[in-house]
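User:
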Amino acid sequence: MHVETWEKCLLFIRERIPAQSFSTWFEPIQPIKLHNEVLTIQVPSQFFYEWLEENYVHLLKQAIKSQIGENGRLEYSVVVDRGDETVKPTTVNVSGGSNSHNKNRVNGYDAYKNPDFYQELKNNSNLNASYRFENFIEGDCNRLARSAGFAVAQKPGITSFNPLMFYGGVGLGKTHLVQAIGNEIISSNNNKKIIYVASEKFTNQFIEALRNNNLQDFINYYKEVDVLILDDVQFLKEKEKTQEIFFHIFNHLHQGGKQIIMTSDCAPKDLKGLQERLVSRFKWGLTADLQAPDFETRMAIIQTKMQADGISIPDEVIEYIAYTVDTNIRELEGVVISLIAHASLAKSQIDLELAKQILKNIVTDIDSEVGIDYIQKTVSDYFKVSLEDLKAKTRKKEIVIARQVAMYFSKDYTNHSLKSIGYHFGGRDHSTVIHAVQSVNDMIDTNAKFRFAIDELKKKLKIRTAVA
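Assistant: Predicted structure:
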C-alpha cells in the first residue's frame, strides 16, 4: 500500500517540476511504510533531507494530502553516512511540514553550524585589491561594459542591470572589471558582503559540501551575500547538480534584491550545456561584451602600465609594441612586463632596438603573423590616406589603390581568411579581397613605379615579419 501511495505522489509531483529536478531529488526516494495516515519515506543522506525541506516541502504537503487526505503526514527516514560507517537510518517526524528545530537538526547534527564558511564570508571577499576602475583602461572595445559596471558599483542590486553579465575572449579584462566593481562597492559601503568566486571553485565547494554532508552550509553561505560575482560561468556546463544549486541560489539572491555579476567566454545565447531556465535568467539584466582592444586603447594600456611603474619610454616604442601585439590585453601586459624586466636586469634604456630584440623571442608565442592593424597603418602612412578612408566606402582612386595594397599584404602576411580580411576593411565581401589581390599583382607586372612602392612597403613590414 505504501509503494502505491508514493507512486501516486510521484505522479502528482512530476507534473509540477522540471524533469531534471524530479530525477535528482525524487527518484532516489524509497517508500518505507504507511501507517495511521503517516507515510514514511527514506532519503539517501542528510543533505538530501535538508534540500527537500528547503525547496519542496509545500509540494510534498500537497502530494500527501492529495493521496492520503487532510490528515496525511510525512516522515523521513534519513540515512546518515559517516565516512566508512553507515549509521542506522533515523526517522524525523515533520508533521506534514517543516519547523526550524527539525530542519536544522538531524540525529543531533547542527546543519547550519559551520564557522569555516561564515568566517570566509565575513573576512575574505576573494577580491584582488589591485583590480580597480582607476587602472581599467576604457576604449571603444569596452565602454558599455565599464559604464554598466560602474553604475552597478554605485547602486548594487538597485539598477536594472541585475544580473550583469560580461562576455568576451581570453585576456580582454572581464575579471579585472568584475573585481573592480567589487572593490568599488567595498570602498563606498564596507558593510556589503561580497564574494568573488570562479565557477570551478564554486563547483569544488559544492562537491566538498556533498562529501561532508554540509550542503545546507554551502547554500546558506551564498544566500548570505549582497553581491555574488561568478567568473567563467561557462565552466558550469554539463554539471547538472551544480547548476541546480546555482539556480536556486540565483533565484534567492535576485528576489532579495541582491546583485549578481557574471562573466562568460560567449554570449548567453551561445552557452551550451547549461539548463535553459538558467540561461534565460542570465538575460534578465544587461549583457555587455568586451572586444579586442583597438590601437588607441593598446597605446593607453602600455602608457598606463609604464607610468604605474615609474618608467618613461619613447613614443615610438609604445607605438611599435601596440602595433606588434594586437591580440589581447593580457598578452600585451605580458610583453610590457618582459620589456621592463629585461631593461632592469641589463641596466639599459628601453628603446626601439631593445623592444625589437625582446619581441623576437615573445611575439611568436603570442601571434605568429603580422597584424592587419599594423599593415593598415603602414600602408595608410605610405600613401598618405587616413585609416578611416581605408575602411570606408569611398571610391577615390588613390584610396582604392591603398586599400587594395593593404588587402594584398593582409592576405600574403597573415593567416586570416578572405572573409576575415574583408571584415577588417569595412565589412567587405571576400570577392572584393580576391579582386584587390589580382589588381595589385597586375599593377606589379605592368607598373614599375607601383612595383617600387610595393618593395618599399615590404621593407617597412620586414621589421615586423622578422619577429613573426
